[in-house]
C-alpha cells in the first residue's frame, strides 16, 4: 500500500513578497567587472536615504515640516523645509557610505567635496523634485545620477570629475513618493522598479525589465506658458489636441515621467521667453531621466539633439527637455526642425 504525504495548499494564506532590492543588487554585481562592491553599496546608501525621506514626507503635515523655509536656492527658487531635510539626508548617507568623493545638489551653489579622495564616484542629485507640491499632498520625488570620477583616486576632486556628459553615467534613478513609494533605477542593463513595503522596511522588485510603449496619446506640458513657446512646440501641441490626445500634467517631473514611462506619452519642458535655455537642470534631472528613458526603449532630447550627448558647461546648466515614447519625441523634434529650416 502506498502512503501519500500530506501537503496542504497554503498558497491562499501567504503570498511571496518577492526579491528585495539588496538581493537584486547583489545578483547584478557581475555586470560591473571594474567594480568591487562600491557601486552596489552606493545604491544601498541611496535606498536608505530614500526610506528616511519617505518617512519625513509621510508625516510632513503632522510635524510642521511642510511649507517654505524662507530661503532661496541657487536657482532662485524658494526652498521648502523638506528640500533642506532631503538634501541633508542624502548628503549624510553618501558621506557615511564612503564610496562618493563629491556631490552636486540642486540645493547647493558649489560642488560638495566630501574630502574622501579614495571615493570612486560622483553623485548629482535633486533631493526633492516637485517639493512645492508637498503642501497639497501631490506626488514628489528624488532624482540621481552616478558617475565614475575621471581623476585618479587618492587625488583631490577636480571639476572634470563632475562636468561629464550623461553618456558617462554608470547608474541613474529616481524615487517616487506617491500612493506607494517606488525606486526605479538603471545601471545600463535595463530598468527595474522596486516598491517600498513600509511594514518590512524593504524595497521589493515590483516592475522588472520596465519597457516604455513606443507610442502614446498623452502629452504633459504646462499649457499656461503656451504663448511663450517656440512655434514648433505650439504646432506640435495643437496637433496633439486635434488628435484628441489627453493632456496630463502633475507639475512634479518624476511623477509625470513615471506615468508616461509606464503608459506611454511625452513630457515636454520647452524653452520659453522667460527661460530661453529651458528650466530643468542637465546634470541632475535631464541626464538621469534620459538614461532611464533610453534603457527602457524611450527617447530624450532637447528638441534638437540627444540629451546625453550634451557636454555640460556649468553645474546648474539648464536645458529644454522632450522625453517619453520614442515615436512621440521624434515627431515633436520634427516639428521643431521643420520650423528651424523655414527660418533659415
From TrEMBL:
GO cellular component terms, semicolon-separated: cytosol
Domain spans labelled Fructose-1-6-bisphosphatase class I N-terminal: 20-208
Pathway: Carbohydrate biosynthesis
EC number: 3.1.3.11
Principal location: cytoplasm
Location(s), subcellular: Cytoplasm
Domain Fructose-1-6-bisphosphatase class 1 C-terminal, chain residue ranges per copy: 213-336
Needed co-factor(s): Mg(2+)
Domain of life of the organism encoding this protein: Bacteria
The entry's keywords: Carbohydrate metabolism, Cytoplasm, Hydrolase, Magnesium, Metal-binding
Chain positions recorded as substrate binding sites: 129-132, 222, 249, 279
Binding site for Mg(2+) 2: 126, 129, 285
Keyword Nucleotide-binding: no
Pfam families in UniProt: FBPase, FBPase_C
GO process terms (BP): fructose 1,6-bisphosphate metabolic process; fructose 6-phosphate metabolic process; fructose metabolic process; gluconeogenesis; sucrose biosynthetic process
Sequence positions that bind Mg(2+) 1: 106, 126, 128
Cofactor note: Binds 2 magnesium ions per subunit.
GO MF term (any one): fructose 1,6-bisphosphate 1-phosphatase activity
Catalytically driven reaction(s): beta-D-fructose 1,6-bisphosphate + H2O = beta-D-fructose 6-phosphate + phosphate
Database matches in SUPFAM superfamilies: Carbohydrate phosphatase
Subunit structure: Homotetramer.
PANTHER family, per database record: FRUCTOSE-1,6-BISPHOSPHATASE-RELATED, SEDOHEPTULOSE-1,7-BISPHOSPHATASE, CHLOROPLASTIC
Stated family: Belongs to the FBPase class 1 family.
Descriptive protein name: Fructose-1,6-bisphosphatase class 1
Organism: Nitritalea halalkaliphila LW7
Amino acid at each position: 500500500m502506498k502512503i501519500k504525504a500530506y501537503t496542504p495548499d497554503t498558497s491562499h494564506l501567504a503570498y511571496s513578497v518577492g526579491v528585495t532590492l539588496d538581493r537584486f543588487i547583489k545578483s547584478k554585481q557581475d555586470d560591473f567587472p571594474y567594480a568591487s562592491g562600491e557601486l552596489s553599496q552606493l545604491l544601498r546608501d541611496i535606498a536608505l536615504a530614500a526610506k528616511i525621506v519617505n518617512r519625513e514626507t509621510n508625516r510632513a503635515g503632522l510635524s510642521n515640516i511642510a511649507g517654505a523655509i524662507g530661503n532661496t536656492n541657487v536657482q532662485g527658487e524658494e526652498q521648502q523645509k523638506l528640500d533642506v531635510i532631503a538634501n541633508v539626508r542624502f548628503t549624510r548617507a553618501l558621506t557615511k557610505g564612503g564610496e562618493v568623493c563629491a556631490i552636486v545638489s540642486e540645493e547647493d551653489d558649489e560642488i560638495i567635496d566630501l574630502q574622501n579622495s579614495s571615493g570612486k564616484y560622483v553623485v548629482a542629485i535633486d533631493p526633492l523634485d516637485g517639493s512645492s507640491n508637498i503642501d497639497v499632498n501631490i506626488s514628489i520625488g528624488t532624482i540621481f545620477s552616478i558617475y565614475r570620477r575621471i581623476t585618479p583616486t587618492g587625488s583631490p576632486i577636480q571639476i572634470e570629475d563632475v562636468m561629464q556628459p550623461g553618456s558617462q553615467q554608470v547608474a541613474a534613478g529616481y524615487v517616487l513618493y506617491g500612493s506607494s513609494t517606488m525606486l526605479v533605477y538603471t545601471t545600463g542593463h535595463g530598468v527595474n522598479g522596486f516598491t517600498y513595503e513600509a511594514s518590512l522596511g524593504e524595497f521589493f522588485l515590483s516592475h522588472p525589465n520596465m519597457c516604455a510603449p513606443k507610442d502614446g496619446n498623452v502629452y504633459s506640458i504646462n499649457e499656461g506658458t503656451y504663448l511663450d513657446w517656440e512655434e514648433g512646440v505650439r504646432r506640435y501641441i495643437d496637433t496633439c489636441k486635434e488628435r484628441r490626445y489627453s493632456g496630463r500634467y502633475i507639475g512634479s517631473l518624476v511623477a509625470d515621467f513615471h506615468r508616461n514611462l509606464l503608459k506611454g506619452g511625452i513630457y515636454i519642458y520647452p524653452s520659453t521667453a522667460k527661460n530661453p535655455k529651458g528650466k530643468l537642470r542637465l546634470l541632475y534631472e535631464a541626464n538621469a531621466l534620459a538614461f532611464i528613458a533610453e534603457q527602457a526603449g524611450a527617447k530624450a532630447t532637447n528638441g534638437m539633439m540627444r540629451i546625453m550627448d550634451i557636454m555640460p558647461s556649468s553645474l546648474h546648466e539648464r536645458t529644454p527637455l522632450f522625453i517619453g515614447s520614442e515615436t512621440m519625441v521624434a515627431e515633436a523634434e520634427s516639428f521643431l526642425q521643420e520650423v528651424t529650416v523655414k527660418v533659415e
